[in-house]
Amino acid sequence: MTRTQAVLNGERLALTRTLSQVENNTPEGNQILEELFPHTGNAHLIGVTGAPGTGKSTLVNQLAFDYRHPPEGTKLPTVAIVAIDPSSPFSGGALLGDRVRMQDLAGDPGVFVRSMASRGSLGGLASTTAGLVQVFDAAGFDIILIETVGAGQAEVEIASLAHTTIVVEAPGLGDEIQTFKAGILEIADILVVNKADKPGADNALRALRNMLSLTQPEKNVVMHHGKMMSTEEAPAGDAEPDQEWVPPVLPTTATTGDGVAELIEQIAAHQQHLKTSGGWILREQARLKNEVGNLLQEALHQRWNSSIPPADYEKVLDQVVSRQISPRRAVDKLIKGAGL
Amino acid sequence: MGNSQTKIRVLIAKAGLDGHDRGAKVVARALRDAGMEVIYTGLRQTPEMITEAALQEDVQVVGLSILSGAHMTLVPKVIKMLQKQGLTDVKLFLGGIIPDEDKSELTKLGVDGIFGPGTSTQLIIKDIRKACQ
After folding, report:
1. In chain A, which residues have their Cβ closer than 8 Å to the Cβ of B85?
2. pTM, to two decimals
3. A237 CB near a chain B CB, below 8 Å?
4. pLDDT in tens for each of the 133 residues of chain B?
5. How far apart are CA A144 and CA A91, in angstroms?
6. How do the domains of chain B map onto residue ranges?
7. How buried is A196 (Cβ within 10 angstroms: 0-12 exposed, 13-18 middle, 19+ buried)?
8. Could you tell me if B79 lies within 8 Å of chain A, comparing CB atoms?
9. Contact by Cβ (8 Å): B71, B57
């Protein structure tokens, strides 16, 4: 039996070896990915992102645990977790510690946890994360939780990979102005204030809801002296407000599991919304477009890189360092390849 | 990218019930600084948990830290379970308190290296690199 067939059959040894091949971007890995691709597109990809220390790993652990212990009479999904931690910019090594928070999942054959180092990528994911997710998808996992590197304000790559993006905040991470800034909050399909048992959680919830009430005026809900007020119905003929998904803001305490059942309900509601509004297909298209774009960029860079002698490259760099030509002029020269 | 890149992946686990993880953390940090990808699992890992993590993470090396004296019970179990999972190519290193009289038997069972107190991290890095060639 081929490795590909073994992965499709859910054999864990074949699965784990394939994940490594894909992560290491080997020719064998890319070949298997090629064969697995037609079998992808069935899993619900859920991204979990947020600043370091907000409790992402603990929340992912609790989410997976609750998915694996559903209310009676409902479907029992299988869960894969891809957890990414940063690589050192100096040594290239990494300490991948997300498993420490995921002990509750040990011994469950319906869960597969894989840690990844970012290996120099800056967007919160590793460059082969999309590939690993495809392997899990083809292997038949129903839910794939993708935990990003601890993200600051601009690591938003997860939004182009996941169907549903959860942004995790914690109390005490800043005032209301932080919620107005562009970047990570904009990509949230669901906002979570974790550590809701800590002081300041109410303030964080209020600040985020305020922010949303300003960006979603079509909902006609405003905050006035701290009270929620609804204005008149929107005039008919406006772009169907029902189609709009307003990110819910939920409190959770991942260490106790409080609020996680509600979070799972909202994740399901978001999936339902995407499927009925046509957003699911749009996101699939955007995701695959994005992946093709990234791969194309890599391939072009690779091709260019192998087309130019390293000595020429060094020569142009030296000219820049000695201020003979500007960096832009250097790029011009390098691309044209002539007149070095 | 386009280039394939391979890193040495190491699982560092505290097996059994003792809570002294300073040594394991020092080693994990040293391996990280040597350019390896270290999966740290934390305290009180059973042989089942260690084997499962080694499989899911597809590591080349498992490093166990044991200071409880239970190594003659835990290590054979880990070796047996790794083999059962088909992870026969995974290297196994031990750290912690392992009495000299137990070392030859552990080596015979298939342990690739034993690092007692005072071992330099440079030696550990060197031995792991050699085992992964």
Report:
1. 12-13
2. 0.88
3. no
4. 345 568 999 999 998 888 888 989 999 999 999 999 999 998 889 999 999 999 999 999 999 999 888 899 999 999 999 999 999 999 999 999 999 999 999 999 999 999 999 999 999 999 999 999 8
5. 30
6. 9-131
7. buried
8. no
9. no
> HEC states along B85-104?
CCCCCCEEEEEECCCHHHHH
Query: Residue A66 corresponds to which tokens in the numbers above?
Result: 């609750």
Coil/strand/helix, residue B44: coil
Mean pLDDT of A111-133: 91
Taking residue A45's Cβ as centre, other Cβ atoms within 10 Å add up to 24
The whole-number pLDDT of residue A228 equals 52
Beta-sheet strand order (sheet of B37-40): A94-96, B37-40, B9-14, B61-66, B91-96, B113-115
Residues from chain B contacting residue A97 (CB–CB below 8 Å): 40
The CA distance from A198 to the nearest CA of chain B, in Å, is 25
Compare all CA atoms of chain B with the CA of A86 and give the residue at the minimum distance.
B37
Name the residue in chain A with its Cα closest to that of B82. A13
Give the span between the Cα atoms of B39 and A188, in whole angstroms: 29
Distance of alpha carbon A167 from alpha carbon A185, whole angstroms: 7
pLDDT of residue A194: 95
Mapping DSSP to helix (H, G, I), strand (E, B) and coil, where does residue B40 land? Answer: strand
Q: What is the CATH number of domain B9-131?
A: 3.40.50.280
Q: Give dist(CA A105, CA B36) in Å, integer.
A: 25
CB A131 within 8 A of CB A22: yes
Instruction: Give the phi and the psi of residue B98 in degrees, each rounded to 5.
Output: -120, 110
Asked if the C-beta of B129 comes within 8 angstroms of chain A's C-beta atoms, the answer is no
Q: Quickly tell me which residue has 């784990």 as its tokens.
A: A16
Q: Which of A171, A118, A163 is nearest to A142 (CA)?
A: A163
A91–B29 CB contact, under 8 Å: no
